[in-house]
Amino acid sequence: MSKKEEPSTSEKLEGTLMFVGDTIAQATTRVHEFHRAISDMPFKAVGAATLNASKPVESVHNEITDLVYGAVREAGKGVFSGAAWVVRQANQSLASPQVIDQAMGGELMDDVDHLPVPNMPNAKTDKRVSAISSAINGVFGDHLAATRNPMQVHMNLYANGQPLQADQAALMAQFPDAQNHLIIFVHGLCCNEDSWQMYYNPSEPATRPYGDKLQDDFPVTALYLRYNTGRNIDSNARQFKRMLNKLVRNWPVAVEGITLVGHSMGGLVSRAVVEALTDDDIILKRAIRDVVCLGSPHAGAPLARLAAAGEQLFSKFELAKPIGRVLGVRSRGIRDLDHGLGALQTRDGQEVMFHLIGSTIGDHTSSWLNTTVGDGLVTPDSALADDTGKAQRVTFAQKHHMTLLNDPDVFLELKMVLRQHLRPRLV
């Protein structure tokens, strides 16, 4: 639904090179700071003992190390920035009539016959690039968006591996059998829409993605959101809400119901959409019936809190400050997982039903595992945090966080959610 097209493979390559250059620069700076923190300790001690007689030696040392690290930083960034420029020029020149004429006349062959020929992109490589891009966006997505790096992920809805078109006529052509109930899957941190197929095995029909199986069983159309998980949750929710409003207006048939299914961070984004609804979103308020949160850290995630605590702890000690800064290089999306959105607080008059599903890698009697490890990333207490007393809550044992993306027990829960509003298809 977004007007921005997904960057091409060459644009993503350019963005990757730019990002690597920035990363080298940042890493060199952190190492430089670590070196300086170590060297400052003996210089301060010697300086105190010799009434600063060692100051000239310290100045020379610092000047030399500053020059060395500065050279490494600028050279590393320069090499990759230069490579990104080459890719950009090559990408732009492909459309140049002059280059095309030269190629048709065979003049370019003398220049390129010694260069390696890159593999042509295909569906498999594109998926791999998208997966890597989504992972990097989860950690550094706010930086990529702020610097307008071509590698940043743009929000869009997908179906059958294709992005949704923006206008109604195109949507009608794309969905000739459009249904009036939409079920929209929202992935988690560092993932994309392909994460819902992570455990799919073509030889085992039971492992087909939730969306495919639900479309077989109910009159629904399954859609998948892709978004930059490195941006903060509220920003993604506001953009998603605008996209949903536009989708409802342009959908080929009148939308009577929407079910949002979010995994991990995706559940928080879906919840934030509902909490952001206003009187101006009257159609959307009537359409959204259910929000299903699969392993979503409503009260925060232990690993995210550990990273935040580590950053604060290391920042208190001069020698460890560079380590604290490394831990501090976390996207706003990850920082939002420190404490989540808090326990569920459904506003008065809100008719959306929330379904909170959590899991633990232990059994139901493993209280220590449940409270400290949970599903490996989120504890049941956080996944089921609800102060309203209205949410439907389910906990599964012996399932890890990613299992929730494709699991027969979870699928049965999703079927029960849809059965509240829809009649199953007759087989």
From TrEMBL:
Taxonomic superkingdom: Bacteria
Native organism taxonomy: Bacteria, Pseudomonadati, Pseudomonadota, Betaproteobacteria, Burkholderiales
Sorted UniProt keywords: Hydrolase
GO molecular function: hydrolase activity
PANTHER family: SLL1969 PROTEIN
Pfam families: PGAP1 (PF07819)
Sequence ranges assigned to domain GPI inositol-deacylase PGAP1-like alpha/beta in this UniProt record: 183-304
Protein name per its UniProtKB record: Alpha/beta hydrolase
